[in-house]
Structures are given as C-alpha cells and as structure tokens.
Amino acid sequence: MVPKITTDVEIRRVRSADAEALCLLEQALVEHLAAPPTYLVGHEARPQEECARLLADPEHAVWFALQEDEPAGKPAGTPVACLLRGPPSENASTIILDRSTSSITGAYSHPDARGSGIATALLNHGLAWAKERGYTRCAVDFETMNPQARRFWLRHFTPVTYALERHIDARAVPKNE
Fold first, then answer.
1. Could you give the number of structural domains in the chain?
2. Of 125, 147, 157, 176, which sits most exposed with the smallest number of CB within 10 A?
3. Mean pLDDT, to the nearest integer, of 75-89?
4. Which 8-state DSSP code applies to residue 122?
5. Which of 76, 53, 54, 89 minimizes the C-alpha distance to 163?
6. How many other β-carbons are positioned within 10 Å of the β-carbon of residue 25?
7. Residue 28: inside a domain
8. 125-165 pLDDT, tens per residue?
C-alpha cells in the first residue's frame, strides 16, 4: 500500500523530555540498517541518557515530524520521523569540515510515513533553520546500500565524495601465535 501524501504533519524541535521517543526512532533506524540489503550491523541506538545529553547540547538540533492522523495504529501526535543536525563527524570528508556547513547527522522515517512527503517537509524545515543561522551549505552522510535513503538523499543533494568501508571477516585473518 502506498501511503497518502499528507500535509497533516506537525514539525517541532525535540525537547529534553522527548529523549525516550528519540531513542525509539534511533533504535528503529539501527534495526532498519541491520536488515537486508544494507546489512549494517554492530551499531546501537544511544541510551536514553545520551539522547537527553544530545538534546541539551546547543551544537545539535533535532526535529520530529508528528503526523496528525493515526499511522499504523499509533496515537495521533506520535513521532513518525526525525532529523538530527549537528557538527560533522570527525570521520567526515575534509570538504565538509567547515563552520559554514551544517551537517545532517541522522534521519529516520517510519515505514508507513515513507513516500508521504513528511521527510521532505522535515528536511525543508531543517534547511530553513540552518539558513537562518548563517549556514551556506548542508552535508549528509548516508548508507548507499540503503535504497530508501539513497533515493531520498540523491533527490535533494549532489554527492561531493564517496567512501567505501570494507570489513574483513575475522576468520580470514591469520592469528599471530
């Protein structure tokens, strides 16, 4: 079933009291990335205390999209998507490591909200917020093996760099004796 395009969405800045809801969305993202075809395993969602610290940090900004109707049996007002903005990762390309670049450090949409326009509305809200604060560029790092993310981000951004990370199965590495 294709979700309907909706404008019945509230976008609001996440507050410290929302740490548990943010952790739930981050856990859903971790599970999504661990599933095929992405197979990104070994990551964990932040504990609630860490989510609360992130929300209190002025270097970070987080928004929720709350759908007004009741998607997938969730109560109205339940967060169905989030967007996190913050300083770029230390592992980010040096091209995007400057004070003029706002970085999207996380994003997730509930499967029932995908294709509804909610993520685009959330992105536009985050970009407007960054522009108001003087940022001239925005960077996002996403897993290219995640087909939903790839389609979404490449609709809105032009890649400036690609990275490949390779993990060798420990069974293939000779043990030093």
1. 1
2. 176
3. 84
4. H
5. 89
6. 25
7. yes
8. 999 999 999 999 899 988 888 999 999 999 999 988 877 77
